[in-house]
Amino acid sequence: MKLLSTLLAGAALALCAFTAQAEVRFGVMNESYPPFFAKDASGEWQGWEMDLMNAVCTQMKEKCSIVELSWDGLIPALQSKKFDVIWSSMSNTAERSKVIDFTDKYYNTPSTLIGPRDEKPGASAADVKGKSIGIQVSTIQSEYYKKYFADVAEEKTYQTLDEAFQDLASGRIDYVFGDSLALDAFLKSDSGKDCCAKMGDVADDKEILGAGVSGGLRKEDTELKAKLNAAIAAVRASGTYDQITKKYFDFDIYGAK
Question: Global pTM?
Answer without folding.
Answer: 0.77
